[in-house]
Specification:
extended, mainly alpha, two-stranded antiparallel sheet
Length: about 140
């Protein structure tokens, strides 16, 4: 891992791939190395405990992931949405799509540009949000 200013230029001919985690500067490449190991290792069977845990991730398709909630049910007065406690799997699935669309439009609308991968439910949510925005 390079330190401060990078790796000695004489190493360049021996490098077959460059990786960047984004537009920021770190003091060394160790954190990038750890991030890559973590990102790849979690895809190996047995690493996550439940192999299906990695099948529905943020950046899978064109939507960011919906908000996640854990215990306790109430945290400093902020409650887990009732729909998630309802047991109605169809409504929960719809809620998750709606929140994923909202989150993506808010944080990374570029992910939706020209995307043909969106489910019909996601497309309906985008249309609904567009219609609501026009009325406001």
């Amino acid at each position: 891992c390079g330190r401060y200013e990078g790796i000695d230029a004489r190493v360049d001919p021996h490098v077959d791939e460059l990786v960047s985690l984004g537009d920021f500067v770190l003091t060394g490449g160790e954190l990038v190395g750890l991030a890559l190991v973590d990102a790849v290792a979690r895809l190996r069977p047995g690493v996550l405990g439940n192999d299906e845990s990695s099948t529905d991730e943020s950046f899978e398709g064109s939507l960011l992931e919906y908000p996640q909630y854990t215990r306790p049910r109430s945290f400093e007065g902020d409650e887990v949405p009732e729909i998630l406690l309802s047991g109605d799997h169809a409504k929960i699935a719809r809620w998750r799509v709606e929140r994923a669309v909202e989150r993506t439009l808010e944080r990374r609308p570029d992910l939706l540009e020209g995307s043909a991968e969106l489910s019909s439910g996601a497309q309906e949510c985008i249309q609904m949000l567009d219609d609501r925005k026009k009325r406001e």
